[in-house]
Structure formats: C-alpha cells, structure tokens
C-alpha cells in the first residue's frame, strides 16, 4: 500500500490544493498559451491531490473544479456555456438544462479518481519500491487530462449534440467531427502537458513527503 499524508496535515494539504484550483480557475494563471491553443492546467492540482491524498480527496477537489466551471460559465458565458450551466439558455430557448450539471461535474470528479488508480496500477506493474515513480506520475497526469477532455466532449455529444450544432452554426452530422477535432487539437497537447507537469511537480512533492517520513521515523 502507498503511504499517504497523515490526516491532520492532509487537511492542510487538501485546503492548499483547493485554494490553488480557485486561483487557477478565476485568473489567467489557469491557462498556458501555446501556438494554437490555450492549455488549461486547472486539473493539475486535482490530479496531484488525488495522488497524495487518495481518490476521496481527489473527488472532492474534482467537485470544486466542476463548481468553478459552473460559476465561470454562469457569470462569463460563451456560446456553448449551456453545456456547463443550467443558468444559460439553450439555443432557441429561454431556459437551460439541468443535464449540464452532469457535463460540468461528473468528468471533473473522475479527474480526481481515475489518475489515482492509473498511478497505482503502473506502480504495481513496475514493482516500484518508492512512491512517486516518474513513469507512474506521468501516466496519471495523461490519464487525468484525457479523462477531462474525453468525458466532457463525449457527454456534450451524447446530451447536447443538436444544441451544440445550433450554437456552432453547423449541421448535426458535423458535431462528431468537430468534437473529435477538439479532442485531438486540445486534448492531446493538454495530456502531454499534464504528464510532464504531474511528473515534475509530483516527483518533488513525493520527495518532500518521503523525507518527512524519514525524519519522523
């Protein structure tokens, strides 16, 4: 079993990750400009929190990630914000849909769960004796980013295909192609970036955690 941060200190670490998520979500710091896209990094503290504190805390951080998305899409809406908030009307309607809460929260909660189990699986396959293998951390980062992109865009396709087409001004038959293009152009660079960031930052955090345990023993 992986050793985790003791509960009392874990609460402090959880609060710290939560604060980072809020700062990233409501400031430009949450996005890294790349040549063709702005790469979001708001999911990075969710993934790291899950790896250090476990999937329950990861799910809580993921819920907070979803909540910030709900707030942002409500107070600063874009043309497709109806997919993330029930307070923004669907195209051709004066009402939003509660189904948007599924898109807003479920993928983000899973971002705090799936990477943890991917990390544990890779640690087991590598027979890693110490927590924080670079390969395991990178795999967790990639899994977390892809979880966010694939589940969000997949749910939009399943639940809002016609409304999404109307908002984008395209035919319904083109929605799948547009979504796959977004997954490819946004999702893959974000997954690579998440793998690098989670491996780099996670390695440092696990080293600090291991050194503290060594001092305590």
From TrEMBL:
The chain crosses the membrane at residues 12-30, 96-117, 137-160, 175-208. Gene3D superfamilies: 1.10.1760.20. It holds the Pfam family ECF_trnsprt. Keywords: Membrane, Transmembrane, Transmembrane helix. It comes from the Bacteria. This is ECF transporter S component. It comes from Yanshouia hominis.
